[in-house]
Specification:
The protein is an alpha+beta fold and 164 residues long. Helices cover 25% and strands 32% of the residues. It is elongated, with a radius of gyration of 18 Å.
Length: 164
């Protein structure tokens, strides 16, 4: 029997947080948006992929096996991006068959890098697409947080919780 891991989002209803929706819809600069969305729960879609095909006596093909996989998008420049969504509605606007897996931003960014992606594309089908790439992707995957320092932003390592 397979054990299903607790993602920490058991009471999640699949909607976008009002704060995340507001910042993504705003004209705020990229660092300000990233500082807010870095705290968001994201939904990484998994879709069924065909494994093996078998044929019946009449020669009709049917699925013998299938697997579930995350989705990578390839840009015109050949770079890969992992897809993620802020809510079930935006994910289903992209693909109504996809299954949501709730994750924190650090896990989503780490998964993107593990899959050799150079970006995380959030809400590719709208309403407000947001892309995290390059150094920002690596910083978030490492668990760092973007913080406001005066009128600028800088990466900081959160303090470890006290032992005890």
């Amino acid at each position: 029997m397979r054990e299903i891991l607790d993602t920490g989002f058991g009471d999640d209803d699949g909607t976008v947080s009002p704060r995340v929706a507001e910042i993504l819809a705003s004209e705020a600069p990229y660092p300000e948006k990233l500082a807010v969305i870095q705290q968001a729960r994201l939904l990484v879609p998994v879709v069924a992929t065909l494994g093996e095909v078998e044929y019946d006596a009449e020669g009709r093909a049917r699925d013998k096996t299938s697997d579930m996989a995350t989705v990578l998008l390839q840009g015109r420049d050949g770079r890969l991006a992992l897809l993620a969504f802020t809510c079930v509605a935006s994910m289903h606007a992209w693909d109504s068959e996809a299954r949501p897996v709730p994750v924190g931003m650090q896990a989503a960014c780490a998964s993107a890098l593990q899959d050799s992606a150079s970006a995380l594309v959030i809400d590719v089908a709208g309403p407000h697409m947001f892309v995290i790439e390059a150094d920002d992707l690596a910083e978030l995957a490492a668990g760092r947080q973007l913080v406001a320092v005066g009128e600028r932003y800088a990466w900081a390592q959160p303090a470890a919780p006290p032992e005890g």
